[in-house]
Description:
Elements: E1 4-7, E2 11-16, E3 29-34, H1 36-46, E4 51-54, E5 56-58, H2 61-72, E6 81-83, E7 90-95, E8 101-106, H3 122-127, E9 130-134, H4 141-156, E10 160-164, H5 175-186, E11 191-195, H6 196-203, H7 209-215, E12 222-226, E13 232-235, E14 240-243, H8 256-270, H9 278-295, H10 308-317
Parallel strand pairs: 1-4, 1-9, 2-7, 5-6, 9-10, 10-11, 11-12
Antiparallel strand pairs: 2-3, 7-8, 12-13, 13-14
Helix pairs in contact: 1-8, 8-9, 9-10
InterPro entries: Carboh/pur_kinase_PfkB_CS, PfkB_Carbo_kinase, PfkB_dom, Ribokinase-like
Domain Carbohydrate kinase PfkB: 1-307
Family: Belongs to the carbohydrate kinase PfkB family.
Amino acid sequence: MAEVLCVGDLLIDFVPTVTGTGLIDAAAFRKAPGGAAANVAVGLARLGVRSAFMGMVGDDPFGHLLADTLRAEGVDTSPLRFTAQARTALAFVSLRADGEREFLFYRHPSADMLFGPADVDTAAVEAASVLHFDSISLASENPRAACLFAADRALAAGRMVSYDVNLRLPLWSDAATAAAGIREGLRKAHVVKLSDDELEFLTGSREPAAVRSTLWHERLRLVAVTRGAAGSTWLTPTAQGDVPSVGVTAVDTTGAGDGFMAGLLAGLLREPDALADPARLDRLCRFANIVGALTTTERGAIPALPTRASVEALLAAQGDPALPPSPSGG
C-alpha cells in the first residue's frame, strides 16, 4: 500500500515552448501532465516513496494519458476515478518576462470538479501513513467536500495530514472566499507548506512570524514557508529555522512548490523524529529546497521532477549529507 495518498487535481498543463512570454504572445504550447496533487505523487515516487493518487479525470484521451503517466511513474492509481460526464481539466501556464506566471483554466466543469465524497476510497485513506491535499481542490464544491471528508477520515485513523496552500485566484469567486476556503483546509493539517506570496495573501505579511500570530493551530506540527531561490523557513511549535536553496538555471517554475512538498514529505517519512530536532529539520528542508530547485530546470511539472539520485548528486556536490533510505527501501 502507499505511504502517501495524494488527493486533488490531475490535468494537462499546456506550457509555451519559449519561456518569457505571456499566453497571448506564445507561438506554441507543449502539453505536460500536471496538477498539484499529482505532481507531489510523482515527485514522491521518484524519490523512492510509495505513493498513490486519488481524484477524477475524464474518460477521454487526456484522462487516460494522465492515468498511464502516473502508472508509468510507479504511482498507484487504483483510487483514481474516471467519468464520462465531463472532460479532463486543461490549464495553459506561462512564465512571463517579468518572472510572473499566468494561468488560464478550462474547467466548466472539468472532471476533477465532479469528484465528491462518495468517490473517496476510504480504505486507501486509512491505509496510507500520510494524506496530502491542497487548496486548489477546495475552490469547487464537490472536490472540497471530498478532500475535507478524506482529511477527517485520515485524522480519525490517526494518520498525518499534509496540506499545500496553492493560491489560484482565477478558480475562486473572489479573494475573500479564497482566503476563507484555504484556511478551512489548513485547519485540518499537521504539516503545511505555503509560499511567502501566499503567506502575504492570507495574513498581510511575508514574515514567517505571521504564521504563528495568524495561522497557527494546536494540530500543526510543521509549517514550511518557501521563498523561491532564497530557500525556505520552517516553523514548529517551539522552533524556527531558515534554510538556503541552491543556484540553478531556472527554465519553468511550474511545479517547484510541489517538488518541495514531495521532498519534505519524503524526508519526514524517513526521519519522523526530525520534527523535534532543528538540525535534522534543516537537513530535510535543504533536501526539499533542492528538489524544488531542480524542478525548475525543465519545462512542465511532472516531466521536470527529479529522481532521488539526481538530488543526492547535487547534495554531494554541495557537500551536504544524503538522507537515510526511506521505510520502503527507496
